[in-house]
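hey so i finally got around to running the thing on that chain from the lab meeting. sorry it took forever, my laptop kept dying and i had to restart like 3 times. anyway pasting the input first so we r on the same page abt which one it is
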Amino acid sequence: MYKTYYPKLNEIDQKWYVVDADGMILGRLASQIASILRGKNKPYYTPHMDTGDFVVVVNAEKIRLSGRKAEAKKYFTHSGFMGGGRFESYRETMENHPEEIIKRAVKGMLPKSTLGRQLFKKLKVYSGPEHPHEAQQPESLKLEG
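ok and heres what got predicted. didnt touch it at all, straight out
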């Protein structure tokens, strides 16, 4: 008879990684980041626990989209009031706040629960090459895509 192993909270080793988004395709980058945030790259991954790592994404303004999605993609926000819906194109979002594009893509790939909201807090995205997380000594991580 086999027993299922659940890692204890003190056994979970959470590292910090820096990912350079320069020239990477949005969807491929987001899926790999979501996998790291969930902890799927670790041997003791458990679906109902936070076993993932922290991810810092730099150069968010240099992300790419494949095909003609840059012209067609729209982001929807709602203020909560009647008639408060608003669409913003990909180009407008890229000019105003490029880090929001990566955040939305990764958030859509995480679970829609309290665990997903907890995992999303471990994602830090910055539009330029600088970030304020040097004290955590993040490792550079090269992702495919």
